[in-house]
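=== RUN LOG ===
request id: a7f3
mode: sequence -> structure
chains: 1
length: 253
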Amino acid sequence: MRGKVRMSGRKVFRIAVQVLRIVILSIALIILVLVGPLVLYRTVKNIQVKRLAREYLTDTYDFQWKFGKVEYYTPLGTMFVEVFPEDARGMEKFEIYVYKEVIADTFIKEYTQIRLEELMEGDFKEIWGEESEINVAIHGFAELDHTPLRYSVDTPLKEILRTEEQPATSRYHINVDLEQEEEAEAVKERMWNTILFLKEADVFPDDRQMSFSVMVYSGDESEKRYSVENIWEIDGETDLDWKCEEYTYETEE
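=== RESULT ===
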């Protein structure tokens, strides 16, 4: 009797295993039927996107490059491909956006930010000290916040910034990080010297908004930020006094 019971248990186990296999195979088949066409579509689409990006890079820029990943970017089914440029100083990578054709790339925007930081670094260090850090951001570009421009890495910075392809809505923001205690009066005096330098540099178009801010990290439980919305509206230190906004942020321990 016990043997029969054991045999029945083995039979139930085999049946359960077979049912489980059928269920797993059915699920795998359903996934294959549903996902297979999508995978095939993505593979074909990736090949097309890389082909368009390759043609665009060849016709647009004069440096060597390598491709990275290709991914979807939500608006309108747009896709983007990572590009790793060679011999473009300071640039690790940028992106090309494709929707039926190349509609935008981020190279000039990101490269311009790097060039601006290089341009200002020496003078900013003299004003703010060797330990200060400078960051430049460009906002308000058309088409996904990126604009394709036909320039090489040797194009003068002034020409890039003043091109008509950059919309009038584009704006610039410069920030200085200061890792030391500093009184408000001293910060504003340095801000005024910086604004004078930016105006005299004659690089930025004066019909585009340029904001400027300073973050002071004093090492205590708070940080201070001094900000000016548009440097072109500042005509003297008196203007700076009442147009400069001050913020205090509490830091976490």
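=== NOTES ===
Residues 2-60 form the longest helix (59 residues).
DSSP finds six helices and nine strands in the chain.
=== END ===
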